[in-house]
Amino acid sequence: MARITSEEMKERLAVYFIMGSQNSERPAEDVLKEALDGGVTLFQFREKGSAALEGEEKEALARQLQRLCRTYGVPFIVNDDVELAIAIDADGVHVGQDDEDARRVREKIGDKILGVSAHNVEEARAAIEAGADYIGVGPIYPTRSKDDANEAQGPGILRHLREQGITIPIVAIGGITADNTRAVIEAGADGVSVISAIASAPEPKAAAAALATAVREANLR
Ligand SMILES: Nc1nc(C(F)(F)F)ncc1COP(=O)(O)OP(=O)(O)O
Ligand SMILES: [Mg+2]
Predict the structure, then answer these.
(1) Which of 54, 55, 127, 129 is most buried, by CB atoms within 10 Å?
(2) Are the C-beta atoms of residues 104 and 129 closer than 8 Å to each other?
(3) Can you tell me the distance from the alpha carbon of 80 to that of 10, in angstroms, rounded to the nearest whole number?
(4) Which of 94, 120, 211 has the most ligand 1 atoms within 8 A of CB, as the residue to mutate?
């Protein structure tokens, strides 16, 4: 299997749903199915928080959600846990600045998708050097989904990265909704990643569809 192309990566980043067992009162599988029906293009399993599953329970949930994504042809990305991603043959991993070194992760995962969090030009350039296929930039707006999140940066960081010649596929993260999606796409993001905008929505399918429409319309401008 070859590395994903930049063009396909950008398409996959359009509506990037992220969740784990702690992000909804409902079973994760039910929420994910509705999100996939609504048009989610990429999924990240992010199992974090004080009551996060561990060990066999975490792997069992990962495999369950991976199976669901496979039926929709949507790539399955694992957050932080590189060993789990390899054990279940996930489609990729996402690591942040405080996780395993991205260069080391690239060596371990071969051609799988590698996503890296970046907050500035230096971190973006380092991620590219390390072999990232995309970078997650944010939090763009205040978020309640990550208790150790940095200060919200606003869409300006996206514009700044593009002005500094960063051309790697970028997904915006942090407080993203269908209402602010146009601003982040116009500022230079290729897609949006969300947790609560879908996982906490009364209708995850409609929420995913609204995000997909907002990204599509912003790209037409
Ligand atoms: N999980 C993420 N996914 C993305 C993605 F690009 F995929 F949208 N961007 C950023 C993060 C944040 O990654 P990190 O800084 O390690 O914190 P955590 O492990 O708590 O998520
Ligand atoms: Mg992390």
Answers:
(1) 127
(2) no
(3) 21
(4) 94
pTM as predicted: 0.98
The number of the ligand nearest the C-alpha atom of 176 reads: 1
Q: What per-residue string of b and e applies to 143-173 under the rule 16 or more CB within 10 Å gives b?
A: bebbeeeeeebbbebbebbeeeebebbbbbb
* Domain covering 4-217, topology: TIM Barrel (3.20.20)
* pLDDT value for 221: 86
Chain segment 11-48, per-residue pLDDT in tens: 999 999 999 999 999 999 999 999 999 999 999 999 99
Report the atom number in ligand 1 closest to the C-alpha of 148.
20
Pocket perturbation via mutation, ligand 1, pick of 120, 150, 173 by most ligand atoms within 8 A of CB = 173
Atom of ligand 1 nearest to the CA of 77: 7
Kindly list the catalytic residues. Answer: 46, 117, 146
Q: Is the pLDDT of residue 1 over 80?
A: no
